[in-house]
Structure formats: C-alpha cells, structure tokens
Amino acid sequence: MFIEYKLEDGSVAIVEATEDVAAFMSEEHRTTENKNRQYRYYAPYSLDALIYEGMDYADTDTPETIYLGYEEEDEDERMEKYLSVLSKVQRRRVEMRLEGKTIAEIARIENKDESSVRESIESAGKRLQKKFPNIF
Q1: Whose CA, among 1, 26, 83, 108, lies 20 to 30 Å from 34?
Q2: What sections of the chain are H helices per DSSP?
C-alpha cells in the first residue's frame, strides 16, 4: 500500500507501507486533523484557572458582567452615536419626535408639510436600520 505525504514545501512524497502501518498512519492523520478543527473552539482561559493558576489565566467576565457593563454605558453616549449618522434636519425632527411631539406639531413648528416631516423621519429610521442593523 502507498501513502502520500504533503511536505512543508508543497511537494508530495509517496511511501510504501504495510497495511498495519498505513491504517495507523491514516488514523493518526484523522485524529490530528480533528484536534486541529477542535482547537478553534478551545478556550485557554476559564474561571477554573483562577483557582489553580491565579488571575493571570482566569477569565472573570461572565455573560452577566458583560451585560451589566453594557447597561452601564451612558445612554446619552449611545443616543449621540446613533443620531450622529443623521442629517441636521432629520436629527432635529427625530429628537422632537422622541420628546413626544406629534408629526403635526413638528410640521407646525418648522412651517413644513406633515408629509415632508413624516418622510424625513421615516428615512431617518431607514438610515438607522441600515447603519445599525442589530439595534433597530
């Protein structure tokens, strides 16, 4: 039986081997490839490492602490990040809408048609959805 080896330089070497050796080599190659695929799911740091190795190898972030950290992020900063992608007119109209004003009130304040205000706010929503698809 012949076994093909792919060498580091890209060339292929063909070696003759007995059935037992070929079966062993094939199984070893399969095991190695499986280990390589599994490695990307392996997390070298864990909470258990805290006990044995100390803080250098421990991952103290849990889903709860990550979520709470996100919650602590200033809401005004997040809102500013979202509204910064809008034009001045869209931003002004969206801010008034968030304050609770109706489209008719916004149109009256700006001396514009309700339809143009509505279209502006709708296009702002589409822009936000496009820019932040996971949020809106």
Answers
A1: 1
A2: 19-39, 47-52, 63-72, 75-83, 88-98, 103-110, 114-131
